[in-house]
Specification:
- With 319 residues, this protein is of the alpha+beta class.
- It has 2 domains: 87 residues, no CATH class; 216 residues, Deoxyribonuclease I, Chain A.
- It contains 8 helices and 14 strands.
- The strands form 3 sheets. It has a 6-stranded mixed beta sheet with strand order 3-4-2-1-14-13, with no helix packed on it.
- Strand 7, helix 7 and strand 8 form a beta-alpha-beta unit.
- The chain is elongated and about 75 Å long.
Length: 319
């Protein structure tokens, strides 16, 4: 029994050391694009680091207990330092639920491996949203046009689509000045309401690895958004990027818009990695909605699992 306790204590120490090394390296994301990829998993690292902390609190003794508490506590502190700024950042004053001229915006990666598109389309139809932003819809664009006939479509390419109840007064789809590997798909359209024009733009970033691609896409998108009036601009997308990454924080500043999604965990919804694994809960907040100062937030919530590997994000905004 003593050998088992010693082995388990050693395992806890190894786990704590791994968490500490990961969290410490993630802070190097301030300077390294490769290390910045580690920041996305900060909540998981924090959760795992709690295990050796709990073990040391209840089962340890002497200097091994102190060492284990110090190492695992350090991992928790470093992980929390990455996450807390997202919860502490300032936000604009919300609008009351009774605000006039509200619009509902849905952000959803439809997922090209979606096995139940009927369920997804039925949910979208029931939501009756004013704006629906979709990614990964190449396989389903024809069905979406047929089964959601009340919407006008704006498509940059088949990877990103904006559905709108109102007919756009102008579609603002322009090729980004970059090679095909770096260029993210983008769609944008302008609409007119009682208060004037507003624009909706949408995109889909690549993954954080290989390092540098996302950062380059962020610069391209920032340049594109700079050509649009910011006051009533709405920007949405599957950015494959969490709020605790240093790249996401830099882009929040570059875009000049307020990110209305706050630590809203949207991936994965059930099966992921091609359906080989299943998660009981989402652990990455990678679907984002931004809006200019001409919009106030009524509500932002996560929708249900409807067949995609992403949960939908439902944002209600008011002028």
């Amino acid at each position: 029994m003593e050998h088992l306790r010693t082995a388990f204590a050693g395992l806890m120490m190894l786990l704590a050391l791994c968490c500490l090394a990961w969290a410490a390296a993630a802070h190097g994301g301030r300077w390294s694009m490769r290390l910045d990829a580690l920041t996305h998993f900060a909540p998981l690292v924090l959760a795992v680091a709690i295990i050796p902390t709990a073990y040391a609190s209840f089962a340890g003794s002497g200097w091994p207990r102190v060492a284990l508490l110090s190492i695992s506590g350090g991992a928790i502190a470093l992980s929390a330092a990455l996450i807390l700024p997202e919860y502490l950042r300032p936000k604009s004053e919300p609008a009351p639920a009774t605000s006039a001229d509200q619009i509902k915006v849905i952000q959803l990666n439809f997922w090209d491996r979606n096995a139940t598109p009927d369920k997804t389309i039925a949910w979208l139809k029931a939501q009756d949203a004013d704006i629906v932003v979709l990614q990964e819809i190449c396989r389903f664009s024809g069905r979406i046009a047929k089964e959601l006939p009340g919407y006008h479509r704006t498509i940059g390419d088949c990877r990103v689509m904006i559905l709108s109840k109102a007919e756009p007064v102008r579609r603002v789809v322009e090729p980004l000045d970059a090679d095909k590997y770096l260029r993210p798909p983008i769609a944008a359209a302008s609409f007119r309401d009682a208060r004037g024009e507003f624009t909706v733009a949408a995109t889909h970033y690549g993954w954080p690895l290989p390092a540098g691609r996302q950062q380059a896409q962020g610069r391209l998108i920032s340049g594109f958004l700079a050509t649009l009036p910011k006051d009533r601009l709405i920007f949405s997308g599957d950015l494959n990027s969490t709020p605790w990454s240093f790249a996401r924080r830099r882009e929040d500043t570059m875009f000049g818009l307020e990110r209305r999604t706050r630590a809203l965990f949207s991936w994965p919804a059930g099966r992921f990695t091609g359906g080989r694994l299943r998660s009981p809960f989402p652990f990455l907040p990678i679907d984002q909605v931004y809006a200019g100062p001409g919009w106030r937030t009524v509500s932002v919530r996560r929708g249900p699992s409807i067949g995609s590997d992403h949960y939908p994000v439902v944002a209600v905004l008011a002028p």
